[in-house]
Structures are given as C-alpha cells and as structure tokens.
Specification:
Elements: H1 2-27, E1 31-32, E2 59-71, E3 77-86, H2 89-95, E4 97-102, E5 108-118, E6 121-124, E7 130-134, E8 144-145, E9 149-154, E10 163-171, E11 182-186, E12 193-203, E13 209-213, E14 219-223, E15 228-237, E16 255-259, H3 264-276, H4 283-295, H5 299-313, E17 315-316, E18 318-319, H6 331-337, E19 339-340, H7 342-355, E20 359-365, E21 383-390, E22 393-397, E23 418-421, E24 430-431, E25 440-449, E26 455-464, H8 466-478, H9 480-494, E27 498-509, E28 514-523, E29 528-530, E30 535-541, H10 543-548, E31 561-562, E32 568-577, E33 587-592, E34 596-605, E35 610-619, E36 623-624, H11 629-639, E37 644-650, H12 670-693, H13 708-717, H14 721-738, H15 744-749, H16 755-769, H17 778-794, H18 799-824, H19 829-835, H20 839-859, E38 869-870, H21 876-885, E39 894-898, E40 908-913, E41 916-922, E42 928-934, E43 938-944, E44 952-959, E45 964-970, H22 975-989
Parallel strand pairs: 1-5, 2-12, 8-18, 17-19, 25-32
Antiparallel strand pairs: 2-3, 3-10, 4-9, 5-6, 5-10, 7-9, 11-16, 12-15, 13-16, 14-15, 20-21, 20-23, 21-22, 23-24, 25-26, 26-28, 27-28, 29-30, 30-37, 31-36, 32-35, 33-34, 34-35, 38-39, 39-40, 40-41, 41-42, 43-44, 44-45
Length: 991
C-alpha cells in the first residue's frame, strides 16, 4: 500500500509541477543581458601543454571563475564564468549540453555569454543554441521535491578542439536566510583546472568571517571604497585523487568558507524562530497526546509511543519549495497531512512531547561533515533530529527512522559527533554522547552430522538495536520468499547440496527491539571429497565476521580507511557428531588492538560428541589513520587464519593391513614409484642387450629397415632415444659398406645434426640403384634437415612442446625410413625381425605412456612443472587446498609459483602473492610444514643462484625478527631469475 501511495503522490506532484512550470515559464522567460559592470574580466589560460593524461571524459576545464557581490542594499549576486576545451570525441558529447539550475521562487537567472572558440575564431552561440527551461526534480526518488528549475542549453556544431565558454548570473537569496550570508567554494577537484579564480566583494558593515583549508592557494583581502574584496587565484590547479573506502566525513579537497555570522550562538538565534513558531497544537494533537497518556503508563513509555507514532504513522515526504527548504510545516498541518520531511516530523514530535511535559528541542546536524571542523554558518546542516532531556539523561532520536521498537533506552541513537541544539541560551555546539543500547547480530548454527546420509543444519540469528531495524526494513521490502531464496543461494555457495527443510521464520520482539530469524536446511553430500589426502572434509566459515576482516587491496594509504562501526557480531557453530570416534583439542585465540577485538574459541565435549566453535568481533573505531595503516594490516594478518575451522574424516577401509591401512598404501609414494620405474627401465635395457647379443642373419638388409608403425611408436615412447638408435644402425651399415673411419655411435647420439648427411647417403644409394629418385630433392631436403635440427634440439625445453616435437620429428624422418623399406622390400627377413614387437617393447610402451601424460599434465597444471609458472597456471583445486591450509587467503592472487614435487603440487610449493611470500613442503613423516611472511615482515631477500642445467636456486627470506626460511626455484629456462626479480619488485614497492 505504501508503494502505491508513493506512486500517486509522485504522479500528482509531477502533474502539479508541469502545470506550475508552464505558468512560470511564460512569466519567467530566459533573460539575456551583458556582463554586470561590477565583474572583473578573467582571461582564459593558454591551452598548449595541458595535462592530457589527467583529464576525464574528454574535457579539460580551462577556467572556473566565480565572482560574488554582497551588498547591504540588495540581494547577493553570483556570477559564474566557465570555459572547457574539448580534447576528444567523448568531450564533444559531454560538453555540447549545459545545465544551469536555479530556484525561480527567489532567484533570477541571467545568461550573459555563450560562445565557441575554434582556431582563434569566436562564434557567438547565444542565439543559435537551443535554450529551454525544464523542471528535473533530481531528488524525487528520495521523496524530496524542491521546485528548482534548470536552464538546458544544447549547442550546435561542437567539434574536437573547440573551447566552449559561457557565463551567467544568479541573483537573489532564499528569504528564509533573512539576508544572512554564507558561502563555500571548492579549491580543487578530481580533474585538473587551467585557471581558478574566486572573487568576493563584501559591501556590508559587519565583518566577514572566512577560513581557507587544505589548499596552497592564497586568499588576498583588499579594502575597497565600499568594503572589502577577497580574491583567490591559481593556475594549473592539480587534481586531487581520493582513495577508495574513505570515511564520509573525510575530504582531501581544498575549500574556503565565508560566513557573516561569527558564532554558533548567532546561527542558533537565526534557526530558533523557524521551529519555535510552528510547534503549535490543535484539538487533534491534544487528543493524540491524551491517547498516548491513557495507553502507556510511565513517561518513558509515553516518549517511546510518541516517537513511534511519528516514525510509523507519518510517512516521509519532503516538499522543500522555496522557504520550506529550512522552514518546517506547523505541527497540526503535518499531522493532518500524515507526511513530512525531517523538519516537519521533528516539529510534530516536539509538539507531542510538549503535551507530555517532556523537555525536547530540535537538533541541527550534518550526516557527512563534522560540524566542529567548519566555521559557524547557516549552510552547515543537512538534517534535523530531536534532543530530549529526561531524568538527567540525554536522548538523541530521529523521527525519520523506521522500524524502531522498544523503549527509549533500547533504541539505537544517532551519533553525528556534534549538533546545534536549538534551545534558549545556546552558544555553542553540543557533543553527541548518546547512550548506546544493545546492538549487534548473534548467530547460532547447529549441524547434525551423521556417519552417512544428509546433514541437518539449523540457524538462528538474533539482531539487536539498529541491526534489527535494518533487518525489518529488508524483510518488508523484499518479502519472505525472496529472502529465503537469497539465504539458500548463500548457503549453497559453501554447501552445494543445501535444500530448504522448513521456510524461514521471523519473530519480532518489539519490547526489547530484537528480531529473531530461524532457518532450517538439509545438506546432501555435506562432506567434500579429497582423494589426494584419502579423506572427506568440511569447513565452517564465520562469514559476516570474515567480511569485516578482509585484507584491503592497498598496501599503503595516504587517506584514512573507513571501517564499519559500531559493529558487534558473534557466530557460534555447534557440531553434533553421530559417531563417537571424534576428538578435537580445545583452543582459544584473542586479538585485541586499537581497531577491533576478535576471538576464536574451540571447545569439544567428548560426552556429547559435540564441537563448539565461537567467533566474536567488536569494532572500536570508524576509521584507520594512514599512519596506523601498517598496524591495521598486521592485525588483519594475525587473524587471517582464525576465521574458519576445518574438520575431516578418513576414507573407510575395507581390505587393510594389520595397522589398518590398505596393503598398497605403502607403495603409493614418490620414492617407490621412482624405484619401480628405474628397475623396469633397467629390465628393458637388459632384455635389449640379451636380444642384440644373439646372432641374426642381416645379410639381406640394406641400411636398417623397420616398419613405419614401430619406428613412429618407439620414437615417441622413448622420447626420441629410439631415434638415436635408428641413426646409429643406419650409419653402422654405411660404415661397413664404404669401409670408412666414421663413428656411427657419435652420429647416433648427435643425430639431430645428421639428418642431411643420412639423406645424402640414401640419395647416392638411390641414384646407383634406380633411374628415378624415390627421395625428396635437395631443395626440400635442406629445409627438412634444418627443421629437424630445430625441433629436436628445442623440443625438450618445454613439457607442453615435448610431445608435438616428437610427432613432428618422427614425421620428418618418414621419407628416409620409407626409402629404406622400399629398398629392402616386403620379404626382407631383417625387416620382419626389426619390426616385431617383443615383451620389452610392450613393457616400454607401458612405462612410457604415463610419462607422456605426466609431461603434458605438468604443463596444463595437473602436475608440477619443471619450471616456474604464473599463478594462472595453477588449478582451482590446488588454490582451494592452499586456502584451506592457510597458505593463502581468499582473494590472494599468486604471481609466480614453483613446485619441487614429483606428482602432486600439494606436496611442495614456493610462491608469492600481492600480499606475501610462502613455502610449504611435506616432511619424511608426511606431515605438512609451511612458512610465510608478509612483505612488511621481510627484512631481506638473499639468492644463491645455480647455473647447472635443471638445478634449483635457493632464495632465503629473512624476516625483521631475524628468522628465515627458504624457497627453492628451478633455473629451467632461467625462470628462477624471473621469479626472484618479480618477488623483489613486489617487496620493494610495498616496503
């Protein structure tokens, strides 16, 4: 119903504004006039050499010229003169339309100039541009209507390289300010400005207060015939870049304040009548006060009832037209309308409290700027709340808040630092030290973990104080079904088999301001399979707390870091095990610092088979100062491994040894696999020697004939070693035929260089035997020989290139092998013998196939690579495993990594991220050891380079406390230097 009401209110108001706009436009035509005589011309700066790399949206702001005249006899006049240079096409689109806002109820807008400067020529556009007054109501979505108009200017014929220059004046002041002057102006922005000029003529008898902050520019005051001139000018104003996640009150930009008033007492004297004169009761208000008294016993209960009525029964709607921007609506009118903004709702609440005999006053606050940091002025506030005094206690309440329940002592009170309380005799700001009621979120997650089947998961969360308010609003906005879907998707991220057992329930404790949420789920396939470790695993995350303790992206800051505050969270996991063979050690961890308090407690009840994990977090501040940022990062590092807890259960054993492990368990390790492979390869060699020792009749053979199938298969399965044997046998035949002094064994070993000589021998044999050539010609043989040389000599440099190089080299050898087959003929006994597969050949194929798979697997990340790799080459499974072990944190990105393991990356690894450097390895007893250090902890990085092919360089990480640990990095392809150089660059940049 409320959303429907909002729709009709907006529709009615837009219709009203359109009708009003048509009337006012006809009477307020667009005014064009020359520049006023009191304005001092400011020339445009030169465009040459503008900071192209710093501009945004294709626009360089050449000139920001503002001039203000304040006179005792007339309303203030504000003259603005701007110029922008269009640097690219994006600037054409963005700058060819100009919008100038003003309030027609008290301001007069005058357009003075509008021109385009192109190649030193000036084109006047004030008559050709499309000018139109429109009413935009930019805050309508926030239910605020201010009636402001906008002069929309659309320029024609705008091009890259143009300078757009325009000037206009706003004349007039909101009558609510009673001719009291205050003004602020920024001194820099996020983009560069060619020339900044601010000139203020002060022609009133009272002195003008001013303050210039966070700017190197100078304010020059000069006495004139009528008063004073204040001037600030600067060229090439540098942009100010603000870091992300800064507090709302923080501003790095320069600013100047001007104010006619010299004290907060004078500001209060101006504000007081605005509220005093509208706290007016009528019969309806009197009746409402009587009802509150009759329905609530005790003055505190009556205060709470009055507040809740204004919050819940009077909807928020701001009709801030003209003087209504600061002047509240009378209380009786707000009650009759049942809508109002912060001023109106405050006045209504004050009227009710007055009827109840409670002392209360309006309190002007600023939700973004700390009031104690600005000079007293009438523009210093953006919100109004209510200040109450009762029984020597102070209360700060906000009538615009919703979903607040409970007594006045149990609701969350706002805290904006300081407020201007509009009470008689106010002379200064009042520090807001509200009584903090209980707040926070307390979650209890209970798991029933059976030996088999699905797990049962129940979660109960209690939200107190302002946390309860936020949850109530969220539930009403989205509805239970949408909330249930979001909760389910959240849990399915951690436990994919989660389904809803019963719909989510909400219980609203309005007396104590508590909201209780109960959820019930079933989880199929709760345990995560880890075959590498031979077990099933489960992890439990303190999700909400972990989000508050995540490591920021920056290692250094120059601006303060925003921290959510106040925050109090507690999450308890209760794990009930069906089996009684579980055991856990009790543990406790506490980190208490200037920023937060964090604790993690582990308790195991052996009689109940119940494990309890308790996580707590309490914030202490809403920001981290830049000088304390390193301490904050160090505190986060200390708690990085304490925000989750993992449990596991071993695979059930069926066929086991006396100790309970499968008989094959003792053989599945790297050492035994290497020994087994070595023994079997030795057996292949012995079988070959035995077979080659037998005499065989090769008298009919020409060269060394072997079938294409066997040659290709053995070439690949032996990783090219069979190729050396094939070359050796062919050159051995040539030596016998020519009775030469050549060395066939050497030519076999270095066969990559002997492709062309073998082709030449075969070509000579072909010329002698046949009239026609059965071999490629020289023009083809030469590039084939060069290709063979390159492929064979470079193929072993990369695991992923090894198999393709074997295939290509075998393909290039086929023309030579095919000629040998042709010469010998199909009936050759030597061909039959050499092409036969014996036991050793099958054994060799059986041994070599896994090695081929291993070679490719190491390159695609399934198994360790022989060289350093980038983090992107590591499989997601291994990344997840590192996160569970605490080697890296979620969000860490590994830059470079090397594993010295034979089969599994999980057995050994060395690497570094944007945050830290780490090393882990398995000891002889198969236990995992690991070391790590953040860059702020590293004092030095020492390297012992190794030049021997395939050796491992040693990197020593020396910590600030003198302790150290080692990284081992392979020098294959000189990647050890890439690893170390990148590591040192990370370390140096973040020291």
């Amino acid at each position: 119903m409320e959303s429907t009401n909002k729709f009709w209110i907006k529709s009615f108001f837009v219709l009203y504004c359109l009708i009003f706009a048509n009337v006012s436009w006809s009477s307020n035509a667009i005014i064009k006039a020359p520049t006023p005589g009191w304005v001092t011309p400011v020339a445009l700066p030169e465009i040459n050499g503008f900071p192209q790399e710093q501009i945004q949206n294709g626009v360089y702001y050449l000139l920001v010229d503002t001039q203000v005249m304040v006179d005792q006899q007339q309303e203030p006049q504000f003259y603005l003169h701007n110029a922008s240079y269009i640097a690219n096409q994006a600037g054409v689109e963005g700058s060819s339309q100009i919008n100038i806002g003003y309030d027609p109820s008290y301001q007069r807008l005058v357009l003075h100039s509008l021109r385009i400067i192109r190649s030193n020529k000036t084109f006047d556009k004030i008559d050709s541009a499309r000018l139109k007054l429109i009413q935009r109501e930019e805050d309508m979505d926030e239910l605020i209507y201010n009636g402001r108009m906008t002069l929309n200017i659309i320029l024609d014929d705008v091009r890259v390289g143009d300078t757009i220059e325009y000037s206009f004046s706003r004349q007039g002041m909101n009558p609510v300010y009673q001719n009291i002057f205050a003004y602020t102006h920024d001194m820099n922005w996020t983009v560069p400005v060619g020339r900044l000029s601010l000139r203020l003529l002060w022609n009133k008898p009272l002195p003008l207060q001013y303050r210039l902050e966070r700017s190197d520019l100078k304010l020059i005051r000069t006495e004139t015939a009528n008063g004073s001139e204040y001037l600030i000018q600067g060229d090439q104003v540098e942009p100010v870049k603000i870091e992300s996640n800064t507090p709302a009150w923080f501003s790095p930009w320069g600013i100047v304040y001007f104010s006619e008033l010299k004290s907060w007492e004078e500001v209060a004297s101006w504000s007081n009548p605005l509220y005093r004169d509208v706290v007016i009761a009528d019969d309806n208000i009197d009746q409402l006060v009587a009802d509150i008294k009759s329905q609530n016993s005790g003055i505190k209960a009556q205060i709470s009832a009055a507040l809740r009525f204004v919050q819940d029964e009077v909807r928020y709607l701001g009709m801030e037209l003209g003087q209504n921007s600061h002047m509240p609506t009378p209380a009786f009118e707000t009650l009759r309308n049942r809508y109002g903004d912060c001023k109106d709702k405050t006045v209504l609440l004050l009227s009710l409290l007055k009827g109840l005999g409670v002392e209360a006053y309006p309190a002007l606050v600023n939700t973004e700027v700390k009031l104690d940091t600005v000079i007293p002025n009438i523009h210093a506030f953006d919100h109004v709340i209510t200040y109450i005094e009762h029984q020597n206690k102070r209360y700060w309440v906000d009538p615009t808040r919703r979903y607040q329940y409970g007594g006045i002592d149990s609701i969350q009170q706002p805290d904006y630092g300081h407020a201007l309380v509009l009470r008689p005799g106010t002379r200064s700001l009042t520090a807001m030290l509200p009584t903090q009621s209980k707040y926070g979120v307390f979650v209890k997650d209970t798991f029933m973990l059976p030996a088999k089947g699905e797990a049962i998961f129940h979660s109960e969360s209690k939200s107190y104080g302002w946390n309860a308010e936020l949850q109530r609003q969220r539930f009403e906005d989205k509805g239970r079904d949408q909330i249930q879907r979001e909760y389910l998707e959240f849990y399915q991220y951690y436990y994919p088999g989660t389904t809803v057992q019963e719909p989510v329930e909400f219980k609203n404790n309005t007396r104590d301001n508590i909201l209780i949420t109960t959820e019930r789920y079933r989880i199929n396939n709760f345990w995560q399979d880890n075959p590498e470790q031979g077990r099933h695993e489960a992890d439990f995350y303190a999700n909400d707390i972990a989000s508050l303790l995540s490591m920021p992206g920056e290692l250094n800051r120059v601006h303060p870091l925003y921290l959510p505050h106040p925050k109090h969270l507690e999450q308890i996991f209760v794990l009930n095990f069906e089996e009684n063979d579980w055991h856990f050690d009790d543990d406790n961890f506490v980190e208490d610092n200037d920023f937060f308090h964090f604790s993690h407690d582990v308790k195991f009840d052996n009689t109940k088979h119940q494990l309890t994990l308790r996580y707590t977090y309490q914030s202490k501040t809403d920001y981290v100062a830049p000088e304390n940022y390193a301490d904050y990062l160090e505190a986060l590092e200390k708690v990085s491994n304490g925000q989750s807890y993992g449990i596991y259960r071993e695979y059930p054993s069926e066929t086991t040894s006396a100790e309970g492990d499968p008989w094959y368990f003792y053989f599945l390790n790297t050492t035994t696999i290497l020994l087994m492979y070595g023994s079997l390869y030795l057996l292949v060699f012995l079988l070959w020697r035995m077979d080659s020792g037998r005499k065989s009749d090769e008298s009919d053979s020409v060269f060394f004939p072997v079938s294409i199938a066997k040659l290709s298969a053995m070439w690949i399965l032996t990783f090219g070693i069979y190729g050396a044997y094939w070359f050796y046998k062919n050159f051995q035949y040539i030596k016998k035929q020519k009775n030469s002094a050549s060395m066939p064994m050497a030519r076999g070993i270095f066969y990559s260089f002997w492709y062309y000589p073998l082709w030449r021998e075969l070509k000579e044999d072909c010329t002698t035997r046949f009239e026609h050539s059965h071999l490629p010609g020289k023009m083809l043989a030469v590039p084939m020989a060069l290709g063979f040389l390159v492929i064979v000599t470079t193929g072993n440099r990369s695991d992923i290139w090894l198999l393709p190089s074997l295939l290509l080299s075998a393909l290039l050898i086929l023309p030579l092998a095919n000629y040998i087959l042709f010469v010998n003929g199909r009936e050759s006994q030597a061909l039959a013998k050499n092409s036969t597969w014996s036991f050793r050949h099958y054994l060799l194929a059986l041994l070599s196939t896994p090695l081929c798979i291993l070679s490719a697997g190491s390159e695609i990340g399934i198994m360790p690579n022989e060289a350093v790799v980038t983090g992107s080459r590591i499989l997601e499974y291994d990344i997840t495993l590192m996160q569970r072990r605490g080697t890296i944190n979620p969000g860490d990105e590994i830059d470079y990594f090397y594993s010295n393991a034979f089969l599994f990356i999980s057995d050994d690894g060395n690497g570094f991220t944007q945050r830290h450097v780490f090393s882990y390895w398995k000891d002889d007893d198969d236990s995992l050891e690991q070391e790590q250090a953040t860059y702020s902890e590293v004092q030095d990085i020492k390297v012992d380079w190794q030049s021997e092919l395939g050796a491992k360089s040693t990197v020593t990480i020396v910590r600030e406390d003198g302790s150290q640990f080692l990284l081992y990095v392979s020098n294959t392809d000189k990647k050890d230097k890439v690893f170390v150089n990148a590591l040192k660059e990370r370390w140096q940049s973040q020291r």
